[in-house]
Design brief:
4-stranded antiparallel β-sheet, 59 residues, alpha+beta
């Protein structure tokens, strides 16, 4: 089953979204810039948004 993302927001080149995984709410931050491999899951929305704000692309 694929994840259903909700509450998707864009902070610069990074998208932050919430999804349900194994009965728990999780949050993800993923960079959409070409050749940037940044993506991470977090327990809290605040942590995902902080990661999005402080992310610097290597590409």
């Amino acid at each position: 089953m694929t994840a259903r993302f909700r509450d998707v927001r864009r902070i610069g080149p990074v998208q932050v979204a919430t999804f349900l995984a194994r009965g728990r709410t999780r949050h993800v931050a993923a960079c959409t810039a070409p050749r940037c491999d940044f993506a991470a899951e977090y327990d809290s929305r605040a942590a995902a948004e902080l990661a999005a704000r402080t992310h610097r692309c290597k590409a």
